[in-house]
From TrEMBL, chain A:
Coiled-coil regions listed: none
SMART domains linked: Proteasome_A_N
Domain Proteasome alpha-type subunits: residue ranges: 6-28
Domain of life: Eukaryota
Keyword annotations from UniProtKB, A to Z: Cytoplasm, Nucleus, Proteasome
Protein name: Proteasome subunit alpha type
Record NCBIfam families: PRK03996.1
Gene3D superfamilies: Glutamine Phosphoribosylpyrophosphate, subunit 1, domain 1
Keyword match 4Fe-4S: no
Family as reported in the entry's similarity comment: Belongs to the peptidase T1A family.
InterPro entries membership: Ntn_hydrolases_N, Proteasome_alpha, Proteasome_alpha-type, Proteasome_asu_N, Proteasome_sua/b
Cellular localization per UniProt: Cytoplasm; Nucleus
Subunit structure: Component of the 20S core complex of the 26S proteasome. The 26S proteasome is composed of a core protease (CP), known as the 20S proteasome, capped at one or both ends by the 19S regulatory particle (RP/PA700). The 20S proteasome core is composed of 28 subunits that are arranged in four stacked rings, resulting in a barrel-shaped structure. The two end rings are each formed by seven alpha subunits, and the two central rings are each formed by seven beta subunits. The catalytic chamber with the active sites is on the inside of the barrel.
TrEMBL record, chain B:
UniProt keyword annotation of Cytoplasm present: yes
InterPro entries given in the database record: Ntn_hydrolases_N, Proteasome_beta_3, Proteasome_bsu_CS, Proteasome_sua/b, Proteasome_suB-type
A single cellular component GO annotation: proteasome core complex, beta-subunit complex
Keywords: Cytoplasm, Nucleus, Proteasome
Keyword Nucleus: yes
Signal peptide feature range: none
Family under the similarity heading: Belongs to the peptidase T1B family.
Record organism: Arabidopsis lyrata subsp. lyrata (Lyre-leaved rock-cress)
Identification of the protein by name: Proteasome subunit beta
Biological role stated in the UniProt entry: Component of the proteasome, a multicatalytic proteinase complex which is characterized by its ability to cleave peptides with Arg, Phe, Tyr, Leu, and Glu adjacent to the leaving group at neutral or slightly basic pH. The proteasome has an ATP-dependent proteolytic activity.
Origin organism lineage: Eukaryota, Viridiplantae, Streptophyta, Embryophyta, Tracheophyta
Length: 235, 204
């Protein structure tokens, strides 16, 4: 491929106008575990597969869905360590905003600042792009919001989206199932069904993670017991 | 003489029923000499948010420019106006950044918040906020202003009565202070309009 001559340095465009490192970063995301998010009329749900490399791993110690603020949560597809770094930076930015304005940061502002960080790593010397795409779910004065942020630093607001290994099947499924007036519980059921579509093996509360936020503006990761309840309802 | 008394100033803000008023004197002096009688101490940040700055005139102007700059960027990024409480926190943070070489001003912030609830506050030159439910004062005439406001203020005044009250309080206080006066500038802000009026008092 003629492009490969230009893939060594991040700051070099290839003749086709691409930054090849970003393309490779998106490939890393695309081979990560599936995650998805759905924006309902009264809240947002995000979910991900939690496939651990061995049954000996203590699954309670792994948490893929994280809080950025009390009312904003995030999930990823791609490289876990890169995700941890971004979460740390985003949390700091949210706290700085709070300290300056004594007002919780709006979801769009936090997404923009996180995306700016990711873009900086595509235009600096000696660094590589982050190998994660994020799904940010939040509820603020503008209502429920769901954003996807890519390694390039571009971000999009979605009604429903998926990322990772099973992205095309998941998105097709979501396109069919999504309705504008869906409520949060319906959205959680749809999220579970979407994860089930491409799931290898038996789906259970030990190998998926679900986070939700409703009109109470408190982001929560569901406990395994709650996930079991939803799974039972879906059956 | 204290540096805060170099130029002379008087600023006061009062809360009314779903409205607020903010007023200042108009004198700009260099110690005992008066050099201007139309100095602008109160500035608009947006239609429902005003800030009055007393103290050293150069810092009044510079601080105002910096705050307008920050607010304009905020408006562009967040696509909304700043709430008064948020603005007060911002001013406090900006003043504290210069803790060991401060801006020599004391701001008075007045605005209408959510549901058109009036908000006023003042702070010292390094950002210590003081929220009040009735009135706040600042400047060389502040002691007289405290007395006049305490005597004349009553809660839940309508816009016209609030205008009368704040004007009387301002004029009687600056008359007792040689460094402030030469008229007054009063803004009365209700949810629908901003009324700006110039007062003629003792021109000395």
């Amino acid at each position: 491929m003629g492009d490969s001559q230009y893939s060594f340095s991040l700051t070099t465009f290839s003749p086709s106008g691409k930054l090849v490192q970003i393309e490779h970063a998106l490939t890393a995301v695309g081979s990560g575990q599936t995650s998805l998010g759905i924006k309902a009329s009264n809240g947002v749900v995000i979910a991900t597969e939690k496939k651990l490399p061995s049954i000996l791993v203590d699954e309670t110690s792994v948490q893929k869905i994280q809080h950025l603020t009390p009312n904003i949560g995030v999930v990823y597809s791609g490289m876990g360590p890169d995700f941890r770094v971004l979460v740390r930076k985003s949390r700091k930015q949210a706290e700085q905003y709070l300290r300056l304005y004594k007002e919780p940061i709006p979801v769009t502002q936090l997404v923009r600042e996180t995306a700016t960080v990711m873009q900086e790593f595509t235009q600096s010397g000696g660094v590589r792009p982050f190998g994660v795409s994020l799904l940010v779910a939040g509820y603020d004065d503008k209502g429920p919001q769901l954003y996807q942020v890519d390694p390039s630093g571009s971000y999009f607001s979605w009604k429903a989206s998926a990322m990772g290994k099973n992205v095309s099947n998941a998105k097709t499924f979501l396109e069919k199932r999504y309705t504008e007036d869906m409520e949060l519980d319906d959205a959680i059921h749809t999220a579970i069904l979407t994860l089930k579509e491409g799931f290898e093996g038996e789906i259970s509360s030990k190998n998926i993670e679900i986070g939700k936020i409703g009109a109470d503006k408190v982001f929560r990761v569901l406990t395994p017991a709650e996930i079991d309840d939803y799974l039972a309802e879906v059956e | 003489m204290s540096i805060f008394e170099y130029n002379g100033s008087a600023v006061v803000a009062m809360v009314g029923k779903n409205c607020f008023a903010i007023a200042s004197d108009r004198r700009l002096g260099v110690q005992l000499q008066t050099i201007a009688t139309d100095f602008q101490r109160i500035s608009k940040i947006h239609d429902h948010l005003f800030i009055g700055l007393s103290g050293l005139a150069t810092d009044v102007q510079t601080l105002y420019q910096r705050l307008v700059f920050r607010h304009k960027l905020y408006q562009l990024r967040e696509e909304r106006d700043m709430k008064p409480e948020t603005f007060a926190s911002l001013v406090s943070a900006i003043l504290y950044e210069k803790r060991f070489g401060p801006f020599l001003c004391q701001p008075v912030i007045a605005g209408l918040g959510d549901d058109n609830k009036p908000f006023i506050c003042t702070m010292d030159s390094i950002g210590a906020k003081e929220l009040a439910k009735d009135f706040v004062v600042s400047g060389t005439a502040s002691e007289s202003l405290y007395g006049a406001c305490e005597a004349m203020y009553k809660p839940d005044m309508e816009a016209e009565e609030l205008f009368e009250t704040i004007s009387q309080a301002l004029l009687s206080s600056v008359d007792r202070d040689c460094l402030s006066g030469w008229g007054g500038h009063v803004y009365v802000v209700t949810p629908n309009e901003v009324k700006e009026r110039i007062l003629k008092g003792r021109m000395d």
